[in-house]
């Protein structure tokens, strides 16, 4: 007996993060009852994206070409490389800052217990980029998890071998945050990473 298309749609929608049975049902009903054109557009976009989007050969970000739009942009500086864990981190930095350098996307972080080593993160490719003349700064923008900190340490040592300056994103109390509502580990990190106040 053939599976029911509505049930197939519900099950397919549940592959999205944070979408449970009720959310999938609401989405499916919205598309079927009110926005079939939008549903068809979504289906086409998903088909094309799943077929055509791959990884940039230079920075490992998402792209449908050999090089992503950031790596193709001649206006960006080759002197600074920002290392992030995921393509989502690239989007966040691009939307929130005026960063005009290049990226390297790890697609994870070092985790020996999970069998994830330097070769799984493409760090051999990053090392080749660092060995090329012109890179003067490596910005480490990994998360502040245990694995993220281990990865940051590995990256710092790699950059040091090439005489490249290393910086780390500042972390600590969020803008507008109150100390009494800040968790202990964030507050401890902010306190130990305090900066001089300039006049």
Summarize the structure.
This protein is α/β, with parallel strands linked by helices. The protein has helices at residues 5-13, 21-34, 36-52, 69-72, 87-96, 123-131, 146-161, 184-192; strands at 54-55, 62-63, 80-84, 102-105, 137-140, 165-168. The protein has a four-stranded parallel β-sheet.
Enumerate how many helices there are, as a single number.
8
Strands, count: 6
Structural class: alpha/beta
Query: Which architecture of the domain at 77-168 per CATH?
Result: 3-Layer(aba) Sandwich
Uncertain runs are none
Order of helices and strands: HHHEEHEHEHEHEH
- Write out the strand line-up for the largest beta sheet, numbering strands in chain order: 4-3-5-6
CATH class of the domain at 77-168: Alpha Beta
Distance between the termini: 76 Å
- The general outline is globular
| Largest β sheet strand count, sense and barrel closure | 4 strands, parallel
Rg: 21 Å
**What percent of residues adopt helix (DSSP H or I)?**
40-55%
Please identify the oligomeric state.
single chain
Sheet-strand content, in percent, reads 5-15%
In CATH, the topology of the domain at 77-168 is named: Dna Topoisomerase Vi A Subunit, Chain: A, domain 2
Overall description:
This protein is an alpha/beta fold and 199 residues long. The protein has a domain at 77-168: Dna Topoisomerase Vi A Subunit, Chain: A, domain 2 (3-Layer(aba) Sandwich), CATH 3.40.1360. The chain is built from 8 helices and 6 strands; from the N terminus they run αααββαβαβαβαβα. The protein has helices at residues 5-13, 21-34, 36-52, 69-72, 87-96, 123-131, 146-161, 184-192; strands at residues 54-55, 62-63, 80-84, 102-105, 137-140, 165-168. A 4-stranded parallel sheet has the order 4-3-5-6. The protein has a two-stranded antiparallel sheet with strand order 1-2. Strand 1 (54-55) and strand 2 (62-63) form a beta hairpin. Helix 2 (21-34) crosses helix 3. The protein is globular, with a radius of gyration of 21 Å.
């Amino acid at each position: 007996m053939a599976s029911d298309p509505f049930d197939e749609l519900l099950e397919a929608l549940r592959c999205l993060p944070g979408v449970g049975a009720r959310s999938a049902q609401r989405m499916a009903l919205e598309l079927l009852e009110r926005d079939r054109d939008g549903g068809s557009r979504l289906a086409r976009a998903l088909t094309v994206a799943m077929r055509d989007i791959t990884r940039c050969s230079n920075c490992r970000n998402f792209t449908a070409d050999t090089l992503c739009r950031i790596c193709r942009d001649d206006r960006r500086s080759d002197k600074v490389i920002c290392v992030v864990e995921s393509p989502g981190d690239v989007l966040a930095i691009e939307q929130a800052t005026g960063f005009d350098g290049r990226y390297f996307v790890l697609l994870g972080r070092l985790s020996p217990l999970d069998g994830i080593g330097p070769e799984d993160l493409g760090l051999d490719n990053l090392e080749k980029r660092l060995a090329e003349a012109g890179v003067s700064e490596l910005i480490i923008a990994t998360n502040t998890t245990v694995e993220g900190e281990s990865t940051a340490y590995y990256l710092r040592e790699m950059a040091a071998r090439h005489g490249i300056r290393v910086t780390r994103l500042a972390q600590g109390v969020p803008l507008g945050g109150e100390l009494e509502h800040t968790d202990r580990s964030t507050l401890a990190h902010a306190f130990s990473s305090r900066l001089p106040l300039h006049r």
